[in-house]
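Figure 6 in text form: structure in, sequence out.
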């Protein structure tokens, strides 16, 4: 099953999505956290906590946070789960530099390490991690199936991958409000705060094209996950996927 989310790119039609996503996050990294809170009105912190709590019963000691960005999700995972080791991987050095500052400030160098890398060719051996998390990152994958296959490869048998991703509300009037906010307000805010309007036009486009809900669950099962639980959040703005190896 193929879908066209890989065709949505931040800047240009030509060239790889991967390189453009890296460029985009390098451009917006200094203001990313501020914009995130502002745009979701802080609700993203509630979604993050819920997603991480779904790993509590697993007591994971080693966690990989794919598309870790500025490290907020991994830091929340440390607070809630306190694993022995968490590795955050991202394609953007600019975002990782912000994450490194946070790690240093909190004195977490021994527990939280960041690595520059590509989520579709993870630089780890098979069966390495007890749990893997991806918050707002899978829709930026150039090849979704390839990324999910590699996540499954480095996940231990019996392990769990938790994916948190924006989705498209379907109920009236939420759908219409969401569309207006995301397609009109968000790019304007993005331009104002980050000086990169295109990055925040890409955001709603990438969400609109993403195969959310049951379609995403089906893709995870197709690549080999044994099951995937779909948990819709806040009127359908966001979905938590719990995928078992």
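Output sequence:
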């Amino acid at each position: 099953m193929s879908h066209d989310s890989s065709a949505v790119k931040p800047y240009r039609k030509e060239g790889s999505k991967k390189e453009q996503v890296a460029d985009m996050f390098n451009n917006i990294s200094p203001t990313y956290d501020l914009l995130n809170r502002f745009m979701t009105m802080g609700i993203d912190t509630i979604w993050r906590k819920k997603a991480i709590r779904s790993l509590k019963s697993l007591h994971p000691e080693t966690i990989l946070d794919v598309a870790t960005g500025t490290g907020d999700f991994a830091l929340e995972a440390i607070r809630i789960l306190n694993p022995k080791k968490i590795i955050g991987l991202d394609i953007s050095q600019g975002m990782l530099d912000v994450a490194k500052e946070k790690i240093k400030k909190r004195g977490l160098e021994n527990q939280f390490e960041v690595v520059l890398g590509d989520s579709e060719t993870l630089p780890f051996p098979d069966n390495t991690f007890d749990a893997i998390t991806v918050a707002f990152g899978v829709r930026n994958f150039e090849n979704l199936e390839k990324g999910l296959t590699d996540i499954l490869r480095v996940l231990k048998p019996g392990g769990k991958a938790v994916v948190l991703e924006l989705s498209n509300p379907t109920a009236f009037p939420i759908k219409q409000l969401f569309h207006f906010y995301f397609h009109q307000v968000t790019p304007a805010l993005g331009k104002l705060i980050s000086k990169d309007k295109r990055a925040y036009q890409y955001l709603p486009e990438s969400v609109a094209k993403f195969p959310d809900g049951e379609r995403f669950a089906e893709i995870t099962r197709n690549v080999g996950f044994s099951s995937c639980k779909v948990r819709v959040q806040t009127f359908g703005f966001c979905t938590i996927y719990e995928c078992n190896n």
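Caption detail: The chain has one domain: 4-167+211-244.
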